[in-house]
Design goal:
alpha/beta, 9-stranded mixed sheet, about 270 residues
Length: about 270
């Protein structure tokens, strides 16, 4: 099978216009995402954008891009158009979020392994919730899975509900997972879901993956322990700067202990 990583990158973000071009320690966000994706086992990485300014940046650092319609309702739809625009034939697509400049290449490899299975048409990741703020935040999407690791439901509310247990004890007595926003699709499945009309569950929770479940498709979930750093607003850039600083400090400590050069991965 051939796998392509597609990074949807639109310019006109409501909360952070021009976000893909924001500088983080001298590199644009889109470049950092692209370079992390190149470290995975993908056969190719492509930026799918709606804006020539982003396309120019990708071209400047030697990346690959396609220009797509600015009116797509989601990154999934943008990935579908990008797949159809590519000259190469790919069997599966990994949709890599353009606002996670430090995405772990191993998470991408997990997606390659999941979507490479014959019995998997759609795949994504989940991480166990450890913080109460995340559990009860509507911005943190929760997921419940069956015994085979297939998603049963996604919600902005805590799921499952723990009856007769005080909410302050839920994390101690239950197991909750948050959805990590990376997807993989077999090529035919991606084209199929892009043609589906918006569903009622999707409208209620504003979560496109509910449209897929509501139409009877299965989403196989992998479990990751890695905490992702996503950039949603200009103020979040400080998180990215702090992350890089912590990585530099960690590498410096490694050099001090080993007397050798620690790998630079920033």
């Amino acid at each position: 099978m051939k796998f392509v990583g597609i990074i949807p990158a639109r310019y006109a973000s409501t909360r952070f216009p021009g976000k893909p071009l924001a500088l983080i320690k001298g590199k644009t966000m889109i470049r950092r995402v692209y370079e992390q994706a190149l470290k995975s086992r993908l056969d190719a990485v492509v930026v799918a954008t709606d804006d020539v300014r982003i396309a120019d940046e990708v071209m400047d650092f030697g990346g690959r891009y396609v220009l797509t319609d600015p009116n797509h309702r989601s990154g999934t739809d943008r990935c579908r158009e990008a797949l159809d625009l590519l000259d190469d034939a790919f069997d599966a697509v990994v949709n890599i979020q353009g606002d996670e400049p430090f995405i772990d290449p191993e998470q991408i490899n997990m997606m390659v392994d999941l979507i490479g299975r014959d019995d998997t048409q759609l795949a994504s990741l989940a991480k166990r919730i450890r913080l109460e703020d995340e559990l009860f935040s509507q911005n943190t999407v929760k997921v419940v899975m069956d015994k085979e690791g297939k998603a049963l439901y996604f919600s902005r509310q805590p799921i499952p509900f723990m009856r007769n247990v005080d909410a302050t004890e839920w994390l101690a007595k239950g197991m909750f997972y948050k959805h990590v926003g990376i997807y993989a699709y077999k090529a035919e499945a991606l084209r199929k879901i892009a043609q589906m009309p918006m569903s009622e569950l999707e409208k209620s929770e504003s979560l496109e993956q509910l449209r897929w479940l509501e139409n009877g498709l299965e989403i196989r979930m992998g479990i990751t322990d890695t905490e992702n750093v996503s950039i949603d607003t200009p103020s979040d850039l400080q998180k990215a700067e702090s992350f890089i600083t912590s990585q530099i400090d960690s590498n410096s400590s490694m050099r001090s202990l080993s007397g050798a050069e620690a790998p630079q991965n920033i």
